[in-house]
Amino acid sequence: MFDPVSFRGLTLKNRIMVSPMCQYQAGPDGVATDWHFVHYGSLALGGAGLIMVEATAVESRGRISNRDLGLYDDRHVDGLRRMVAFVHSQGVRIGVQLAHAGRKADLAEPIVAPSAVRFSERYQVPHALTEAGLDEVEQAFAAAARRAVAAGFDVIEIHAAHGYLLHQFLSPISNLRTDAYGGSAAGRLRFPLRVVQAVRRAIPDDMPLFIRVSASEWDDRGFTLDEVIQFCQAFREAGVDLVDVSSGGNTPSPPRVYAGYQVPFAQAIRERVKVPVAAVGLLDQPVLADAVIQEGRADLVAIARGFLRDKHWGHTAARALGHPVDPPRSYQRAYLT
Fold first, then answer.
1. Taking all residues of the chain, what is their mean pLDDT, rounded to a whole number?
2. CA-to-CA distance for 71 and 66, rounded, in angstroms?
3. DSSP codes, 38-56
4. Taken in order 6, 265, 177, 72, is the CA torsion positive or negative?
5. Which among 92, 119, 91, 90 is positioned nearest to 107, based on CA atoms?
6. Is 131 helix (H, G, I), strand (E, B) or coil?
7. Which among 290, 194, 197, 212 is positioned nearest to 249, based on CA atoms?
8. For the NADH:flavin oxidoreductase/NADH oxidase N-terminal domain, which residue ranges apply (predicted)?
9. Distance (Å, whole) CA 146 – CA 2
């Protein structure tokens, strides 16, 4: 877990990634606030090799809530650039997860999705995207990626999991289209693949591109693991460098969770697609997280709630595993024996 790893032109000092976690602390216009500077700045002191910033909307209508971060306007760049610069000053790399909530946008304004099928009774019925609407969303992802580059981010992650727009296209639960963007697995893949290709074109060749997928919908109506393998193979061929493997989110019923419950999905994608993967899901016990890497089941471990409880989880894990601890200079005396 503390070995370095490289993707394209980027080398991470270790294999610990702070998983993207929505904070719902942005201003109503999507601009980063002091909360984000303090939150991500404190995470930069905690021993991770990579911090992934929360789901950041590529369109106003694609926000999960009206307190989501945005990258759909040039005015969003400055606040994120300040945050990125501080993280870099601590020797840590930082990425951003570009997202569109689709039918899971909890907003007053009209929302969009592959089909006019709402997520649950609490959500409004979305408008099915037209061909012109698909073009707009694709262009929005590419424009947000260019703004992320301008802000200085090291990695782009496309959010195609947890029931948000790109996952909605992949899933037969939410995609009822009868045109070229629905039906078969190849049809359901077509629009998410367009987005991946557009983002890859929009960013530098030496910049890594990650994608987060839900490997299971925990629902018999959903896609199969074989279909997910097909999706990930196409993403890999389109220039994705790592698949961040989660699950669920496209139906209101959550699965039963336990430590490491999603690791088998990550391992399957790693072995069958021959692509680096990140494993996520209650991996905050250092011995477990390290074993996932040692056993070749994943290339990164993504830690979420562990870092919320202990912003120095990376240093805590190093001590637990008998690995040298390298905290910021001002904190070094806390680790003297």
1. 97
2. 13
3. HHHHHHTTTT-SEEEEEEE
4. negative
5. 119
6. helix
7. 212
8. 1-319
9. 31
CA dihedral angle for residue 215, residue 218, residue 224, residue 228, rounded to 10 degrees? -10
Q: How many domains would you assign to the chain?
A: 1
CATH of the domain at 296: 3.20.20.70
The 10s digit of each residue's pLDDT in 223-257 is 999 999 999 999 999 999 999 999 999 999 889 99
Domain of 83, in residue numbers? 5-335
Please check whether residue 244 is in contact with residue 212, taking contact to mean a CB–CB distance below 8 angstroms: yes
Q: pLDDT of 54-106, one tens digit each? A: 999 999 999 999 999 999 999 999 999 999 999 999 999 999 999 999 999 99
Q: pTM for the complete prediction?
A: 0.97
Rounded-to-integer distance, Cα 210 and Cα 5, Å: 14
Residue 322 makes CB contacts below 8 A (sequence gap 6+) with none
CA distance 224 to 170: 11
